[in-house]
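Researcher: We're teaching a course module on how sequence relates to structure. For the next exercise, students receive a sequence and then see the predicted structure as tokens, so they can try to spot secondary structure elements on their own. Here is the exercise chain.
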Amino acid sequence: MQLAKVTPNMLENEGSWDPVVLCGPMSSLLGDSCAGSLDTWDASISDGSRVAERSTFGAADIGFAELRISHERQTAPASSRHSVRTGDVLLAKAPPIKAAWISPSVQQLRFDATCYAVRNLDTAQGVWLTFLLNQKEYAFCLARRSVASAMPRINTNELRRFPIPEVPEGFERIASGIANCLDKRSINSLELVRLQGEVASLVESMIPAVVFDNVDEGHDRTESWYRRFHAQTLEDSLIPGHVKAGEFQQILKRNGDWRPINSLVSLARGHGERLGQLATQYHCLRLSDVGSDLRVPMTLSRGLAGNRNVYAEPLQIDEVLHSLLATSPRTAFVCERPDYDVYPTDHWVRLKFNETPGAWALVMQTEAIARQLRSMTTGLTQQFATPIAVQQLVLPPLPPAVRQSWDSRMRRWQRQRNELDLEWFELVDRVYRLLKDTEAKYGPWVTPYFQEAIDDA
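Model: And here is the predicted structure for the students to work with:
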């Protein structure tokens, strides 16, 4: 067997990265740039306390260049190797490789064993590396160096030796703007998390002490299931889960004065005209487009013509949408009408509340509502509920002043988020214009999904 040194000429036909980047003077080693500081969470290390479930950040929480904050997290001392610090680049260990730049508002939060933290980078280097690691070509090149195993993982030694293109001239000002924008977006996300926590706590406190799980403790579990329910709770469906949901809702109404959702909405649509065949493409809202922030994204890709499971009427202001996927419920609130018509799929139920729709959207997202809907699923897989099941939900008797406060805060939050999104899109566009200017040196660059949606719109 003969071994030979790989030269730039041998890489010219690779079709991905310019050999100058991989072998020439235009690159530097990542380990040199960050002074060899690369921290990882060691599962064998114990600080004497058990970390609560979902209290840390992991690879699943890394979005495009930022952390997705969906709930409160546990903090750690600033000196801990297991906590992120301002300026860190949090990197997923296993493909698909993603990276996020850590802003001051999320420092000291813990990260788990699925991530690396690249440290001791200045702002320009950290932001540049973050954008590089979010490119498909660059991430693929790094993944090819991973240790061969059933599940590929990025090796720390290979990561330190991996070459990165030099930071372009004049990038410092752009990087500073991106860092400030990411910090404002993180603060904005934390505000929503606190509001959602406040809503969840109050709704949970309004559940009567006598809940269904305690009602049947005195019954013999070996006897027929229907003997554990009162006759007045039995309705058309005798499916055990549906009867259980009916019993739970009866307790909520009888002992907690919870109200049927039909008394709070002027319109609840789960059946209606469908869009059918169209000559052109249209913007479609799917379940996957909405996250835990209840927002309809500002940018949506256009759907294919001829989709028959889409409502014929576009979204309207103050409309609340709740998903029929009961195993992973999602709620959306339309605070402002999008710049273009958006047609939701029929996996959503469309609700028009009589007042404070923003507050009711937050309530629809709580576990008390999800629990009702999970018990009313149908079909072999027991994943989806029917529109009729959503119309049978009961909601807590919230004081008007509380609902008005929540509604106002929810609307203010969405407007602020939309403004931050516009600022973020402009900054990302500037970065990608800079990347395109260097395509001749660094190879093809991949445009992020939301930038493609902007161009498409």
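Model: If you want an answer key for the exercise: The longest strand covers residues 348-353. The domain at 195-405 is CATH 3.90.220 (Adenine-n6-DNA-methyltransferase TaqI; Chain A, domain 2).
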